Amino acid sequence: MLCVIDLNQQFLTDFALPFKLYIDAACSQGLREALHQRQIVDGEPREGVICYISRKLNDSEARYGATQTECLFLVWALEKLHD
User: Fold this and answer.
1) pTM for this entry
2) Which of 12, 29, 37, 38 lies 20 to 30 Å from 50, alpha-carbon distance?
3) How far apart are CA 10 and CA 49, in angstroms?
4) Is 80 exceeded by the pLDDT of residue 16?
5) What domains, with CATH codes, occur in the chain?
6) What's the pLDDT score for residue 26?
7) Which residues contact 37 (CB under 8 A, 6 or more apart)?
8) How far apart are CA 80 and CA 54, in angstroms?
9) Angle at the Cα of 36 (from 32 to 39), degrees rounded to 5?
């Protein structure tokens, strides 16, 4: 898989602003997440990436249904980002 990242859209974290967490649990191979934030850049509101995280599913997790996989991912992502 090829991933292209536009580093011009990567922001420094501003803890005074809210975050958006985008999750992709549709893949049977693993979990992917992108933490975004909306900031004012050059006088314009823009949404950019703060960070990406991912991990592979183990054998039993790969058999989860969509709802269980999304719940697993949400808990995992929040725990990972809290550290």
Assistant:
1) 0.71
2) 29
3) 5
4) yes
5) 18-82 (3.10.20.370)
6) 65
7) 11, 13, 14, 17, 18, 19, 20, 47, 48, 50
8) 10
9) 170
CB 23 within 8 A of CB 31: yes
Angle (CA) 75-14-71 rounded to 5° is 10
Number of residues written out for the chain? 83
Distance of alpha carbon 9 from alpha carbon 79, whole angstroms = 25
User: Residue 19's closest CA among 57, 49, 62?
Assistant: 49
How much is the pLDDT for 7? 53
